[in-house]
């Protein structure tokens, strides 16, 4: 059986030994009506029959769009049972934003909160001026900026990733990886072949996991240890 999950919770089970059957969660109060209306839908096989159904999807009586809607409903029911911060994370999107837009201002506040204030620093007018020609990327959900990073051109083949920050409520949930993946695709689209960064030592293992390579020895930047890293795109 192929088990399909969202945030480690099952929303579909697909039969492999007997192709043609899929178990899905459904609205409990509506299951009796669904069973009565469709012969290809049965009580959930080996599941709690008050909450699950088994769909015979290859007998030709159910349209592809209807089967898709059943899968969507099962997914939605599981997502709705997750904690709010995880639900927000699942609906987060990564995108490029204009310099000095409202979202840029929100990203600047996040940079201050995560990267600057703990070191007794803050973003200055010089920092803002240096951002002018850079590529600004954020992760947002429900109009809330929850992550940001900046790409700065080094030369026509190299770009530097800097100022990577994720809101504390969304750390450890994969959002940083999503932003880096998105930034890499943007860099490739803009014909850069190498991504570089100066990683704080405590963050270097995160970039190790994303296949970045460490270069040289540790060095001090903004009064804390860093290591230079790169990845060929």
Question: What distinguishing features does this structure have?
Answer:
single chain; 233 residues; alpha+beta; 7 helices; 12 strands; elongated
Helix content: 25-40%
What's the end-to-end separation, in Å?
36 Å
Which blocks of ≥5 consecutive residues have pLDDT under 50?
none
Give the percentage of residues in beta strands.
25-35%
Alpha carbon gyration radius? 23 Å
For the secondary structure, the number of strands is 12
Give the count of helical stretches: 7
Shape: elongated
Strand order of the largest sheet: 6-7-8-9-10-12-11
Structural class: alpha+beta
| Helix and strand run | EEEHEEHHEHHEEEHEHEE
- What does the largest sheet look like? 7 strands, mixed
Instruction: Give the integer mean of the pLDDT values.
Output: 94
Please outline the helices and strands.
Layout: E1 2-6, E2 9-14, E3 21-25, H1 31-37, E4 41-43, E5 52-56, H2 64-80, H3 84-90, E6 93-97, H4 102-116, H5 125-130, E7 135-141, E8 144-153, E9 158-166, H6 175-189, E10 194-200, H7 204-209, E11 213-221, E12 224-232
Parallel strand pairs: 9-10
Antiparallel strand pairs: 1-2, 2-3, 3-5, 4-5, 6-7, 7-8, 8-9, 10-12, 11-12
How would you portray this structure in words?
This protein is α+β, with helices and mostly antiparallel strands and 233 residues long. It contains 7 helices and 12 strands. The chain has helices at 31-37, 64-80, 84-90, 102-116, 125-130, 175-189, 204-209, and strands at residues 2-6, 9-14, 21-25, 41-43, 52-56, 93-97, 135-141, 144-153, 158-166, 194-200, 213-221, 224-232. The strands form 2 sheets. A 7-stranded mixed β-sheet has the order 6-7-8-9-10-12-11, sandwiched between helices. Strand 11 (213-221) and strand 12 (224-232) form a beta hairpin. The chain is elongated, with a radius of gyration of 23 Å. The model has no long low-confidence stretch (mean pLDDT 94).
